[in-house]
Amino acid sequence: MKRFKREAALLPPVAGYAKRKAFFMQEAELPFYEYRIDLYCFSPAKDITAAFELKLTKWRRALKQALLYQLCADHVYIALPRKVLRGVDTGLLAKHGIGLLAVGSSGRCEQIIEPLTSRLVLPHYRAGFIEVLKETRHALR
């Protein structure tokens, strides 16, 4: 059974999940206030942005960050290794509209809680991040 030793090990499975959902994403963390968004994505087809916060165990800290990310993303997720989900207050996440992804030892992600569309998103943050993603996407081609 695979144990995740670093948050960075969660990134490939979460990025794969986002790609399957037709998102394109940045190549590095995006700074937002005093934090760095682990993964920020945009789906042009659905006109939806998503922010993902990856944690190995500290889901309460992830929630604090995820609540802030609702200012810049339509959907916000916390991604955790499956084996730490028992201690997570899923009711609290659902109450705040934060999605939850379980990353299994096989490296696959499963959505446990579907995020609600943020009513707090500020258009200037969202548009700015989308522009960064579009510029990065064109630069990578």
Please give a structural write-up.
The protein is an alpha/beta fold. It has one domain (7-140): Trna Endonuclease, Chain: A, domain 1. Helix content is 32%, strand content 26%. The chain is built from four helices and eight strands, in the order αβββββαβαββα. It has helices at residues 11-20, 59-69, 90-95, 123-140; strands at 24-25, 30-32, 35-37, 39-43, 48-54, 75-81, 99-103, 109-113. The strands form two sheets. A six-stranded mixed β-sheet has the order 1-4-5-6-7-8, sandwiched between helices. Helix 2 (59-69) links the parallel strand 5 (48-54) and strand 6 (75-81). The longest helix has 18 residues, at 123-140. The chain starts with 10 loop residues before the first helix and ends with a helix. The mean pLDDT is 91.
If you average the pLDDT, what whole number results?
91
Oligomer: single chain
Strand order of the largest sheet: 1-4-5-6-7-8
Largest sheet: 6 strands, mixed
Show the helix and strand layout.
Elements: H1 11-20, E1 24-25, E2 30-32, E3 35-37, E4 39-43, E5 48-54, H2 59-69, E6 75-81, H3 90-95, E7 99-103, E8 109-113, H4 123-140
Parallel strand pairs: 5-6, 6-7
Antiparallel strand pairs: 1-4, 2-3, 4-5, 7-8
Q: Care to give the gist of this entry?
A:
Helices cover 32% and strands 26% of the residues. With 141 residues, it is an alpha/beta fold.
Features:
two-stranded antiparallel sheet; globular; 32% helix; alpha/beta; single chain; six-stranded mixed sheet; 141 residues; Trna Endonuclease, Chain: A, domain 1
